[in-house]
Amino acid sequence: MNLLDGILNFNKRFVAEKAYEPFLTNALPNKKLLILTCMDTRLVELLPRAMDFRNGDVKIIKNAGALVTHPFGSVMRSILVAVYSLDVHEIAVVGHHGCGMTGLSCRDILDKALAAGVSPDTITMLKHAGIELERWLVGFDQVQDGVQQSVEMIRTHPLLPQKLPVHGLIIHPETGKLDVVVDGYKAAGGAV
Questions:
Q1: What's the pLDDT tens digit per position in 47-97?
Q2: What is the number of other CB atoms lying within 10 angstroms of the CB of residue 68?
Q3: Were both Cys, which of 30, 38, 72, 131 would link to 126 (CB 3.0–4.6 Å)?
């Protein structure tokens, strides 16, 4: 049985047995918080438990490194929708120690893409089309740098309220210990 078949077989039982009932909630976050965090598998269950969140408490966006790389990209669009349509009043960017985006090299990714069968002509065409792969396929030197960069991009976005608290945290992916990088209340001028 392949992975998809296993998922679908489990899902059929899950629905038939009404195992979804403990997770029923509405679309608005009870804690009025959006979390931008990394897609690291160690954080799937650890992060909500370490922060005392349950189903329905928060909105969560996950991507590589918890990075906001463009002020008008899909991550910022999701943040704007959450603030203006989904009752989010605070944001927390949560990076983690040992992140794979630390020291990420564009060259390494492109070499692996080529080894997987992507044509060198495709990469050349993207560069000629103005896609700056070296700026796009890059991580950060330290996780704290990535968290601060994302917090600053969100906090200074022209379409967000200036008093919106945007926190920056780093979680330890084994213990769940949180360290504050940016206290969003202080940065927003004391808003609570």
A1: 999 999 999 999 999 999 999 999 999 999 999 999 999 999 999 999 999
A2: 23
A3: 131
* Cα(168)–Cα(147) distance, integer angstroms: 6
Find tokens 């965090």 and name the residue: 37
Gap between the Cα atoms of 65 and 137, Å rounded: 12
Please provide residue 52's backbone torsions phi and psi, each rounded to the nearest 5 degrees.
Answer: 60, 45
Length of the chain in residues, anyone? 192
pTM: 0.92
60 within 8 A of 39, measured Cβ to Cβ: no
Q: Which tokens go with 121?
A: 């002509």
Domains recognised in the chain with CATH numbers:
29-104+139-187 (3.40.1050.10)
Q: Which of 82, 51, 60 is nearest to 161 (CA)?
A: 82
CA gap 56, 36 in Å, rounded: 16
Pairing type for strands 58-63 and 90-96 reads unpaired
